[in-house]
Amino acid sequence: MAAMFTGYYKFRERSYFLQQTADAIEEEVNAGTLGIGPYSEFGDVGEVEALKLFTQRVEGHRNEQRRRCSSWTSPPTRPPPPASRRRLDSASTRRTVLDDWEGDHNTEARRVLYVAGSRAQQLLVCAVHRKHVGRVGDLLAAKGVPYINS
C-alpha cells in the first residue's frame, strides 16, 4: 500500500511541476507576444534580442523543472543523468533523436520530442545546434511544417 501511495504521489508531483512549467512558458509566450514585462523594452526593432531573452527565460523554466523533478526520478546519492540528446530507451546504439526521426524509428526519444512539440498551441520555439539546423529544416520541410530559421 505504501509503495502504491508513493508511486501515486510521485506521479502527482511530477504532473504538478510539469503543469507549473507549462504555465510559466505560456506566460512567457504571452508576454513576448504582447510586448509586456521583460519584453517591453525591445519593440519591433529588437525582435532578435527579445527572442534571445525569451529562449533564455524558457530554458531557465525548463531547467528549474528538471531540478525539481530530479529528486523524484533518481536516488539522492546519484547525480541526475546529463541532459543528453541520445536515445532515452535502453538500446545501445549510437543513433540520435534526429536519426530516429529521419529513419522513422519508434523510440522513446522520438516520442518525447513528439509530446513536447504537440503541446504547443500557437508557437513552438526549438533551439537547435547550428550543425543540425539543416537536418531539422529538411525534416520539417518534408512534412510541410512552416518554420523560420533565425
Keywords:
150 residues, mainly alpha, 2 domains, 5 helices, 59% helix, disordered N terminus
Describe the structure in your own words.
This protein has 5 helices and no strands. The longest helix is centred in the N-terminal third of the chain and has 33 residues. It is globular and about 45 Å long. By secondary structure, it is mostly helical. The protein folds into 2 domains: 83 residues; 66 residues, no CATH class.
SSE pattern: HHHHH
The average pLDDT score comes to 76
Radius of gyration: 18 Å
- The total of beta strands comes to 0
Brief sketch in words of this structure:
By secondary structure, this protein is mainly alpha-helical. 59% of the residues lie in helices and 0% in strands.
What's the arrangement of secondary structure elements?
Blueprint: H1 2-34, H2 47-73, H3 97-103, H4 108-118, H5 133-142
